[in-house]
């Protein structure tokens, strides 16, 4: 569908597409060094499973009780510690290049956090893994033994490339499964069909040739996601999305580039005056969002899903508003088939937690949590940024200061998904002439759920996937299942008995 451009601003139909793509591109493969203040590692929680609630739900008017629910908790996962990296205050593209640099020609890092072109995405992780493998191959001698730490997309891609080059490769994975942040779960209760699959990690993918080839080879189907053209207001109408917030962020970024030092996005909005917007509706006498509401909307339902962090922590210089306009596709197949395909040709040791990596000018020694050790010639580390910001893996000797600085400045964002199934799709109006909405958002308040994706729309199934980002994601992860369920159900109240579309 063609975009409807707004003079001086962003095409309305493309807003949030890439924000949600960033949301969905929560992936395993980061590359990092230990942060100066380590956080003790913990025992991993069980893999996400269907939620069995005990207390009756507290239902907002018009919102029925779900028949099934499933949630992710990536910040609480000790083998993830978040969703993906973001450019925190002080970040530059050079930091990611520093992370990619080999250490003594023995250690390489790979993953989305090492991608300068597409951080926080599946295709960024894929490209980084392949690039690291190519770099290793330019240095290693024939027949060398190479270890890859992490069996996510970046790690398995690197391992495959190295196997193709004739090296002896072993992949070491901490979890009891492969895939990392690619987490496909069979769930008949939610999908309504035997062996129906939902995604608890990445569920949207960007347009990338190399990734598309992998998806095609694995038989993973995807379909274009129609980004929202309007948002639900507190007055109960659908209001066309305005470019006000994006324009303000663009102006704040321009101001930040002239400032002597980097600041957070909210600071730049305030100091530049770009965030000084009216709280009165644009159209006199007609209730609806004010310019200030649209800025809040962009920050809450755009910036946070894309970065996994509140705007105050996001670099005003590094954040590119154009990322919000990139299209995305919804995974309708089983995304884990991609990593299963990659893993078929490599040796993978699961449930093997690496706790120490020692290196010199001749070899690399990996110490496992079990006390066992493994000696290899070189290693590619694809553990997530959030993991290596803890004391889970220690390096001896310590990594170069450039690597340590990069990991201490880059941030780790948090994005979670919640899946809900109902007896009927109450959010679909079915009214004649009313547009079909694949993405539901709210303007005029701070939402608990940044966006709802009507994941069951194509198959006429009453299934929603909610995107929870940044501070809300961290807060909700602390709640038990009953408390969590009540909060996300309350977030659906604005979409009950949807009123006709409002004026622009």
TrEMBL record:
Organism: Agromyces sp. G08B096
Protein name: FAD-dependent oxidoreductase
Pfam families in alphabetical order: Amino_oxidase
SUPFAM superfamilies: FAD-linked reductases, C-terminal domain (SSF54373), FAD/NAD(P)-binding domain (SSF51905)
Gene3D superfamilies found in the cross-reference section: 3.90.660.10, FAD/NAD(P)-binding domain
Domain Amine oxidase: 61-136, 153-228, 335-497
Protein family per UniProt: Belongs to the flavin monoamine oxidase family.
UniProt keyword Oxidoreductase present: yes
